[in-house]
Amino acid sequence: MSVEYWAPDRSLEGQTVVLIGGGPSHAEIDLALLKGHRFAAINSGCRKVRPIATAKDILYFTDNSWCEQHGDLIEGWPGPVICANRHSKNRLGDRIRCIDINDLTARIGGLSHHVQASSGHILSCLLQLMGAARLILTGFDCRVVDGRTHGHNDYNSLNDLPVFEGQFMPGWQALALLLDIEIINATPGSAIPCFPFRSLEDCLTWRPMGEAPYDGSPIRSRETDYPYREKVVVWTGRPERFWGAADGNDLVLYRPMEWMPA
Q1: Beta-carbon count within 10 A of 162 CB
Q2: Which residue among 102, 106, 129, 233 is the one 20 to 30 A from 224 at the CA level?
Q3: Do 256 and 151 belong together in one domain?
Q4: Which domain holds residue 254?
């Protein structure tokens, strides 16, 4: 049966997206810190973040076997569910969106065994095509911690270690060169060395520079570590959170700011 593939839209234009992986550190992800920020969960990593997921947060999976075993997680997810498996698409129909993995690989310009090294690799490439400007990796340990390869109980196998070293690592090294998107690794102790390390709290917390108005009037900001993008934001009275207004985007912004007249 033929599949109608979904063409990735630009709904994440200029946004920061947190990727929720399933490594051992996944169990320690702070939901209170993550709440209100855009994220995309991979496979069973969605279970932990489901209580704070919104209609704009993505669930992604690649394997049909995972889909068959965890239909409840798919049905209960409030946002878009995206896969790269035609069998899952044929079975679930309009409930999920299916991407053409070969087209994705061609558009990224990489080798299939790099772009498709894991669901995390595929999702990173997809989010770039959807316009995201910055990715934050959480739960991407790519190593064994206290005898565990995952932070949830759906599967856990020490046989994954050769896959980490022989497949995942070369894939990340290639994507670090291929992707134009900014990628930050916020996974404590991650074995992936290709991206800058920062804590998740540091990535998601504002540190305003200067003073902002308290009357709710619009102000124009320049993101000091990404100086080529400007947005108009509205001061909310809380120095850690500012909401986009110029582009109709209701996502929080994530970088330090300098205040200028609107």
Answers
A1: 9
A2: 129
A3: no
A4: 206-260
